[in-house]
Amino acid sequence: MTKLLELAGAATLIISLIFIGYEIRLANRIALVETEWEMFNSYAAYNEMAIEQPKLFAERPISEYTETEIASKRSQFFRTLNIWLAAETAYSNGMISEATYLITLADAQALITTQKESGTVILWQSILDRYPFLGDKEIIKLIAKELDG
């Protein structure tokens, strides 16, 4: 009888461990979905800013910008930089898919190209100079390469 109880206890323990493993996998999947969701919400907020302030997103030569518009342009870059860095961190930790990360890099490249054409990309250098410790980040390398090129 004791052996039977020990076997039942061992079986219960194994079933409990399997259930805990399942719960952990499920929690990880939920975290992945939530992270992707938050990334897309960040992009949605950015797009709302473009809808609400289209003048800020209409590229023109930097010489035509007022000081207020330049400050807004810097804020726009801070916002995009935060999104891009969050995407890189999430991707390197396996929290977003490669597709989402590649979308982020493509968006970054497109924005950099557009701002290079207008000359507003020069505003980015002073911002990047404040954060030399981010130099190992892929998105920072991409931006630095474009600023140098």
UniProtKB/TrEMBL annotation:
Membrane spanning stretches: 6-24
Name of the protein: DUF4760 domain-containing protein
Source organism (scientific name): marine metagenome
Keywords: Membrane, Transmembrane, Transmembrane helix
